[in-house]
Amino acid sequence: MTENEVNQRATTITNHRRLSVIVFSLFFSWLLAFPFEGRILYALTDYYNISAESFVFGTLAAHFAGLLACGFFVRDMKTAKRLMLFSIAFCIAASAVFFLPPSFLWRLALISAAFLVGCCVAAWGFYFKGCTPKNERIKTMADGLIFSNLLMILLNMAAIHISPHIGLGFSMLMLAAAFLFALRLPKEEAPESPSPGQGEISVGKAGPLAFLCLFIVVITINSGLMYRVQGPAFSHLEWLTSWYWAVPYIAALFIMRNLPRKTNRAYILYVAIAMIGFSFISFLLFGRSWADYLVVNTLMLGACGVYDLFWWSILGEMLELHKNPARIMGVGLSANVLGVLLGGLIGNTVASGQSHSPTLLALGVVCVTLILLPPLHTRLTTLLKSHAYLTTITEMPVQEQTRLICTFSITEKLTEREGEITALLIRGKTYRMIAGELHVSENTVKTHVKNIYSKVGVQSRTELMNLLLDVHIPSTESEKP
Question: Which residues contact 373 (CB under 8 A, 6 or more apart)?
Fold first, then answer.
């Protein structure tokens, strides 16, 4: 492959990645602002003086069913694109029904749209996998969540401060834009060799996925409790909650997205658990002023941002485990919806009893989360060694790194000097530091690095580390008795 062909392919991948993020952000903003307990839905029901609760649980259940069902009838990117286009078009029509007075059509339209948008999100898994290199999926997911939440804030403010129908109209424009951009998505995946063991998920690989789903359900119960307990308590601060609600969430995503790869994100997960606990403790002890809201919401939504990016990006890595990414996405995201459903049901059940019961229950969920996190980390690390939240190559003992470099150098026919530079690269050394240690110029180091990348077919230090880990994993597994 010539240099021009390599550059052209890289440009195509970048463009497809951007398209996939744009489409996700646009239709996901509609989902967050409208059917998924969104402010537009609540504003419309308040406008007609009817209860939103009669719609919420049925809609979430339909969304749950759509996520699970998609993987059984969508088996390739071409079908995924068709389903996404149909689902987005249907959701535009379903949204238009809400310009009419309340009737049975509202419920029918909302449940049908929620089911199809669940299918749409799961089907997007084909583009999450096919349009983003494995080591970049954490950034793709962060971008999608950040932009969708920014758009959701705009839709919320329009619905609350201008008119519910204006907010609804803007949300339909988001869907129309999503449809137009989705038309430009590729119909087929780029040809590539299948990943080792790709196909049906083996028992050994299903275990970490099942444990991750359990963790998602438990951690998301707090989101359901937040909707039912914390949200209504600060409803009198509508001018603030309409826009600040998702700001800490977006800020956390941005920070986590741009952390250096060598940062140990595992510690941040424990900090986020503590933030959730302090959020509910603050809710229990503080009043209901705007300052109290800022503290409670910042702690809770900041932690949600950390954890959402954690499990979304883990799912992104797990798409390599199965030939049908829609099935992996559907199973993982259905666990999220199940957690919200359970949290909401539990919150409604206990809210009628003692005033502090939901808060104490939430603290119990935090404790369970704290118990689940270490074994989850262990199980995921055995499967996804190169993920940013998990163990990285720089955490290996130096002796293991040296053995790995030697094996890799023989396999890829690197020169002795290139092997030395590779070893220093994966230990986080800069070009200047490498030049100093080897007593050569920086330009010489850059030339060697360019040759290394060319020989092994990567474009960055991160890709090199991921490639080395792919060599490391099968070699260690073969050494087991």
Answer: 215, 269, 270, 273
* Tokens representing residue 470 in the block: 């792919």
> What integer pLDDT is reported at residue 353 of this predicted model?
55
Tokens of 114: 């929620």
Angle of helix 3-33 relative to helix 137-157, nearest 10 degrees, comes to 40
Q: Which of 11, 330, 43, 289 is nearest to 162 (CA)?
A: 43
Query: Which one-letter amino acid corresponds to residue 207?
Result: G
Q: Which residue in this structure is represented by tokens 């459903």?
A: 341
Neighbours of 229 (CB within 10 A): 24
The answer to whether the CB of 226 falls within 8 A of the CB of 218 is no
* 129-175 confidence digits (pLDDT tens): 988 887 788 899 999 999 999 999 999 999 999 999 999 999 999 99
Indicate the burial class of 468 (C-beta count within 10 angstroms; 0-12, 13-18, 19 or more). buried
CA 472 to chain centre: 27
The structure tokens listed for 39 are 């402010």
Q: Could you give the domains of the chain?
A: 13-188 (1.20.1250.20), 205-376 (1.20.1250), 393-478 (1.10.10.10)
CA distance 129 to 292: 41
